[in-house]
Amino acid sequence: MTDIKIDGPLLNLFENSSIALVLAEVAGDHHLLMVNERFSELTGYGAEDVVGKNCRLLQTSPDGRQASNHEAKAKLRQFLTGDEASVRTPIVNFRKDGTPFVNLLFMSRLTTSGGVTRYIFASQFDISRSNPHLLDQYDQELGGALSRIRPLLEGHNVMLEGTLSTIANSTNAIAQAKVTLAELDRNPTH
Ligand SMILES: Cc1cc2nc3c(=O)[nH]c(=O)nc-3n(C[C@H](O)[C@H](O)[C@H](O)COP(=O)(O)O)c2cc1C
Predict the structure, then answer these.
(1) How many domains does the chain have?
(2) Which of 10, 37, 74, 181 could pair covalently with 128 via S-S, beta carbons 3.0-4.6 A apart?
């Protein structure tokens, strides 16, 4: 049973957002409950492809290519099993058409007043085809989405934890993501 009713204002916020937003359940294997239109535009996967599944499917292309992503996955697992309020990491993902991209993934937890995490909220951004201005704009929109979601959760016995830590050196982070993508083109399994 989900406590959050995914309709009304929360659904509107997701659908009207200009950035990719998703929500997953913590129970079980963190299955996606909802993804918005921007997520589908970014990844090529519609809600019908991914709701009820774990988002790790983005780590493998439809023809079976996979990037190593060891460091990123360790960080995500640490977040999911630990008690940090939020996490942010680049991770190599593949669109439904097989195109790779470096996803700057942000996740934060929705916890009950008793401190139990019930849902994970996340947002995805293609940092490998970006520039510092677009990344700043994305950060502002993500920060705005976080502050608009908070009041919508009142009455649902959950609150959104964490704040958005901005990327210290966005120029550098974008350059690094482009290098990662170029390496992947040369050697698709690494
Ligand atoms: C709400 C939510 C959104 C996620 N979004 C992504 C994503 O966009 N790309 C990705 O590679 N992993 C994403 N993940 C992380 C994976 O689902 C998974 O937790 C991660 O790969 C580490 O666990 P594993 O080692 O069991 O795969 C997301 C997880 C959650 C809970």
Answers:
(1) 1
(2) 181
